[in-house]
Structure formats: structure tokens, C-alpha cells
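Just wondering, can you check both lines?
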Amino acid sequence: MKLAALLGLCCVLRLSGCAPPTCYSRALGLSKEVMTLLDKIHTSERTKTCAEVLPTIFLDVHNSCVTSKLRDFLYVVLNHPDQSCRKRPRMMLLKRKVQNLYTIITRLCYRDLVFFMDDCEAIDTGHGTPHYTEDRLQLLEER
């Protein structure tokens, strides 16, 4: 009896760490996958010429501009001027991942994601501009 209870407790503890992904964790993970894939596309000899057409993008699911920038990026990937680039496996994978991320952000997790900033330049350059609140700005001016 004690052995069965102990075995049951071990199973419950082991399974408790296996929670399904939330919208946020899936969007965050998929954005990292897209960025890793983009890096491979830019560095690979086979896809380097395909990457020249792609706009620079630094995905941040905490930025409210991510939806419009992702939509524009997806348009470029779907309408790549070189037909042979559209058929390359990495480019097809990029297209699928970006479509999935866009769908997750705009439809599945529409009200679940919280945007902490609205800095479109940060998605284009990868460098965010600090936004100080009025109190913080006043402290900086006094120094």
C-alpha cells in the first residue's frame, strides 16, 4: 500500500512539470526559432543570395509593432522575386514558421500577449530606445 502511494506520488510530481505551452511561451519560442533560422539563412552559402531580399527584422513579442513588421516580412517571404529561393527548404521552413508565429500573435493569443513597448525602430535595428517615465526623466534632468 505504501509502495503504491509512493509510486503514485512520484508519477504526479514528474508529470506536474509537463505543462502544455502557453500562448506566450509558444510565441516566444517560435520567435527565437525564426531568428535562429534567419541567422542560418544569412550565413549559409546556398541561401545567402535569397537573404539579400529579406528585410532586417529583430523579433520581440513584447513590442506592439511586431504584428505589422511580421506581416510585412511575411509578404516579402511569400512573394520572393526569385522562384528558386521560394522552393529552398530553409526558405519554405522560414515561411511556415513566420506564418505560424503571425497566426499565434494575431489570432490565437490576440488578447493574451502583453506589449511592454511600442518601438518599431527596435524591430528594424535591434536597438531599443529607452522610454523614461516622467518621474525618471525628472530625476535624470536633476543630476
User: Anything to note?
Assistant: Residues 1-142 form one domain.
